[in-house]
Specification:
Organism: Actinomycetospora endophytica
Order of helices and strands: HHEEHHHEEEEHHHH
Keywords: Golgi apparatus, Lipid-binding, Membrane
Main location: Golgi
Shape: globular
Structural class: mainly alpha
Distance between the termini: 41 Å
Mean pLDDT: 85
Protein name: GPP34 family phosphoprotein
Helix content: 40-55%
CATH superfamily of the domain at 8-145 and 213-233: yeast vps74-n-term truncation variant domain like
CATH architecture of the domain at 8-145 and 213-233: Orthogonal Bundle
Strand content: 5-15%
InterPro entries: GPP34-like, GPP34-like_sf
Largest sheet: 2 strands, antiparallel
Length: about 240
């Protein structure tokens, strides 16, 4: 999902990559300092797959669409969802446990592969060590991150969204991450994101996609994650 609003190094990011990217810290601290981001990243991937017609919403399940996913990360998500027949009731398996951790790692690996982030060795008890996923991952293109966060922040503060920034805003709303972008008026930004997630303040046609596909999909993924966590905590 390409947009000319993004910085030059990030114009070809997928939606899950972009979510992870804009939620990075502007001072260069680890982009992986997200808390439980797997559900939001899987939701972003499903949104892009649906908008590209690589997956189709068949009511209680997803099915393969007429357009092949060419991005490896998106195809990996599609394969995971279709592994159990695409049933929405099984979405919890895509965002929890080992597969959820893999989603986070794959997304962060893509940011490294694109040169947007890099891994740094750290010292553990005086010895250099490269930790397992995450802890040593830091933003490399901080100027690009500043620019891209300001693009999203502008929409939260009242600027007109295009398709891409509208989708990011919907994801941030349902993931309760709007305040992480430090908008000028946090309360106003939360209200505006809620309105965009309802199909308001967006160009014609995009409003229908949001109401019909995007918000319901994100809600379904995050609800599956919450249900799985509740069930797990009960044992």
């Amino acid at each position: 999902m390409r947009s000319e609003r993004w910085s030059t190094p990030t114009r070809d990011l997928t939606l899950p990559e972009r979510v992870a990217w804009v939620l990075g810290n502007e001072d260069g601290r680890p982009v992986s300092s997200l808390t439980e981001p797997a559900g939001l990243l899987v939701a972003a991937a499903l949104v892009e797959l649906l908008l590209d017609a690589s997956l189709l919403d068949a009511g209680s399940s997803f099915r393969r669409g007429p357009v092949d996913a060419t991005d490896p990360l998106l195809e990996w998500v599609a394969e995971g969802v279709m592994r159990s027949g695409g049933r929405k009731a099984d979405l919890g398996h895509a965002v929890t446990g080992p597969r959820g951790a893999q989603m986070i790692r794959h997304t962060m690996d893509r940011l490294v592969d694109r040169g947007l982030a890099h891994r740094e060795p750290r010292r553990v008890f005086g010895y250099l060590a490269m930790p397992v996923f995450g802890s040593a991952l830091r933003v490399h293109e901080t100027a690009a991150l500043h620019h891209d966060r300001s693009v999203v922040r502008a929409v939260l503060d009242g600027a007109d969204p295009d398709e891409d920034t509208a989708m990011i805003t919907v994801l941030l709303h349902h993931g309760r991450r709007v305040r992480a972008l430090h908008p000028v008026d946090p309360h106003g930004a939360v209200s505006r994101a809620r309105a965009i997630a309802s199909g308001r303040f967006v160009p014609p046609g995009i409003d229908q996609d949001i109401v019909r596909l995007v918000s319901p999909t994100v809600q379904a993924v995050l609800a599956a994650l919450t249900a799985t966590e509740v069930l797990s905590s009960g044992h």
